[in-house]
Request: fold
Amino acid sequence: MNNPRLFDAIEFAARAHRGQFRKASPLPYILHPLSVARILIECDASEEIVIAALLHDVVEDTNVTLEQVRGAFGDNVARLVQGMSEPNRKDTWENRKRGTLEFLETAPQDILLIELADKLDNIREIGKDIAREGDVVWQRFNRGRDQQAWLYEQFADLFLRRMQNECGISLARQFQENVNAIFRTETGRVAASRIDYNR
Reply:
């Protein structure tokens, strides 16, 4: 993967997310799409999938438009980024998440793989934060631990059922392991501290 388009995408995403941080964190937000891209590079995903991973939140969370993504990186990357973007950010959390789950039931494998890498990075970060800070972590989210447990367990089931390639199946199993460690113990803190979130 030695194409300048990849580095163009890193620069594009870094500019778009400039000034943004992870929820209640000192970590610049750009570290998240970089981590998602790394997961996919290690999965031997195509360059366009990796580029879309770098850009997966720019339409949803910045002033960048889908047309700007299309103009810079082409129709297929724009299709993937659109597939990763919630259509109505003003709807309730519950409706938005149910809509995402419904969409993923029939989504193409390339979009599903990016979504899996995105959620895997998210759950790893949650695990690190719980191991360090405990259940106060849930106060950062729009919904608490119980609602997050419902959502992540739905994702885990969906990814295990739908992923078809070997790397995707392996990532789905890692995701399930992280979800179980965090949500299927009394507090999640002890189990979360035993997971290697950097693998």
Remarks:
- Residues 23 and 140 are 6 Å apart (CA to CA).
